[in-house]
Amino acid sequence: MSSNWQSYKEKLANCLCPPGDGVFTVNTAKERKSALREKQFGQADDIHPLWLESLDKLPDDARKAAILGISSDCGGGILRGANWGPLFLRSTLLENHPESMTFDLGDVRVIPHLLHDKYLNPETISRCQNALYQQQASEYHVSPLSITEDVCDGFYANFPDKGIFGIGGDHSISYPLTKSYLKAKRAEGKRTAIIHFDAHTDLLVERLGIDLCFGSWCTHILEFLPAPHHLIQFGIRSSGKNKEHWESTFGVKQHWAHEIREKGADAIADEVIAQLKQDAVDELYVSFDIDALDAEYASATGTPESGGLTPDEAMIILTKLSEHFPITGADMMEIAPFTDSSLEGKSSSETTLKEGAKLSAFLLNAMNK
């Protein structure tokens, strides 16, 4: 193995932790963590050495997709709880879609009060480096967005033929995931597009003075796309401004939820396929905020919205796109298992997880083709 890989593996060992451990707790969700460990490593305790050994197998693993959990909801701002998404979604995937499980890198080590290192002063960074790495002058980042981008940059440098499937976490997490992906593909000369499912545009420049968050991440990855209209959004319905404002201001392409209902998911997918072919797009990244689905199907999320897509409509669009373009990166965001805002008897966190796992399994299988 190359020295680059050895250096990168050391970074993974320091900046990540075993799957499901991204939320730092002693007793909360202990049984759920133990169940996941049993399924993935065959034992509930002392799995850290087994996880480190599993990283050695990454270079020889033939599968294209690698899971990375980012258990952070610090970039959200409505109902919290998406930090539990990586643990719960993995468990649901293993239970309902075991055939789709792929190589698992583990979870980013998350200090839950932090977002990005650029918001921290040197003293705070030093203290957090000491807490995470037992060094006050470490080379590693301390905030979840910063760690994620660094880990993903190294991943694509070492494994250009593989892709990361990110599990969040709030949607701010998609900023480093897509940024690393787009930088790597641009360096390879690949033309890419971001397929974004969401009830919201996420096209704010900033929110309450913070430029990187769940409502603004799309704005800040536009510069890394071949063109702004290579960000294609599906399911939008909760916005203070109309479609014409967003498309004319940012140059993106949107298909609002009511349009998909009126025209049909097949027709919308055909429109997008024609656009992507005209733009000579080579590969796709899919970022899926679970609130793109109607609240009937996805109520366990930070901002559930009625009038959204059905799971079948989302699957029709994804299936048709995958038949024409390789999906080489993806993420599933904003599943908050302990947060269920639905009316009693209407929906549940189990329904949200079931639909999120079904879509995630499809994306993982598509990436592994």
Question: How does this model look, in words?
Answer:
- The protein has a single domain, classed as Ureohydrolase domain (Arginase, Chain A).
- It is of the alpha/beta class and 369 residues long.
- The model has no long low-confidence stretch (mean pLDDT 95).
- Helix content is 40%, strand content 14%.
- Helix 8 (243-250) links the parallel strand 6 and strand 7.
- The longest helix has 19 residues, at 349-367.
- Keywords: Hydrolase, Metal-binding, Plasmid.
Provide a quick synopsis of the model.
The chain is of the alpha/beta class and 369 residues long.
Strand tally, please?
A: 9
CATH superfamily: Ureohydrolase domain
Strand order of the largest sheet: 1-3-2-4-9-8-5-6-7
Largest sheet: 9 strands, mixed
List keywords for this structure.
nine-stranded mixed β-sheet; Arginase family protein; Arginase, Chain A; 12 helices; 369 residues; Ureohydrolase_dom_sf; single chain; alpha/beta; agmatinase activity
Strand and helix layout:
Blueprint: H1 3-15, E1 16-17, H2 30-41, H3 48-55, E2 65-70, H4 85-96, E3 103-108, H5 122-133, H6 144-158, E4 163-168, H7 174-187, E5 192-197, E6 231-236, H8 243-250, E7 253-256, H9 257-263, H10 265-278, E8 283-289, H11 311-324, E9 327-333, H12 349-367
Parallel strand pairs: 2-3, 2-4, 4-9, 5-6, 5-8, 6-7, 8-9
Antiparallel strand pairs: 1-3
Helix pairs in contact: 1-6, 2-4, 4-12, 6-7, 9-10, 10-11, 11-12
